[in-house]
Amino acid sequence: MQQVISNYRTMFLFRGIAAVLFGIIALVWPKMTLFALVFVFGLFAVISGTTAVVAALRNSAELFFWTCLSAT
């Protein structure tokens, strides 16, 4: 249980850092804001999606029963 809480904290920390970087890029590069925001958002989406898939696969053994039960 402690590791699950730690994983959530890490995810929130990562998302918070990404959001701060998003804001800094928007303020520092006003002419390149669209390109920078699309690039940072794309990078954020790839990393967030990858970590979500890894977390789902890692926790699949624990949730196998519930997954089978909900698939019926």
Q: Spell out the helices and strands N to C.
A: HHH
Helix content: over 70%
Number of strands: 0
How many discrete domains?
1
Radius of gyration, taken over Cα atoms and rounded to an integer in Å: 17 Å
| Global structural class | mainly alpha
* Overall geometry: elongated
- Compute the average pLDDT: 75
Strand percentage lies at under 5%
Quote the distance from N terminus to C terminus.
Answer: 27 Å
For the report, how would you describe the main beta sheet?
none
Number of helices: 3
The stretches of 5 or more residues where confidence is low (pLDDT under 50) are none
Topology (elements, then pairings):
Elements: H1 2-28, H2 33-58, H3 64-70
Helix pairs in contact: 1-2
Describe the structure.
The chain is mostly helical and 72 residues long. The chain has one domain (2-70). The protein contains 3 helices and no strands. The chain has helices at 2-28, 33-58, 64-70. Helix 1 packs antiparallel against helix 2 (33-58). The longest helix is centred in the first third of the chain and has 27 residues, at 2-28. It is elongated, with a radius of gyration of 17 Å. The chain starts with a helix and ends with a helix.
Give me some keywords for this one:
72 residues; mainly alpha; elongated
Short characterization:
This protein is mainly alpha-helical. It contains three helices and no strands.
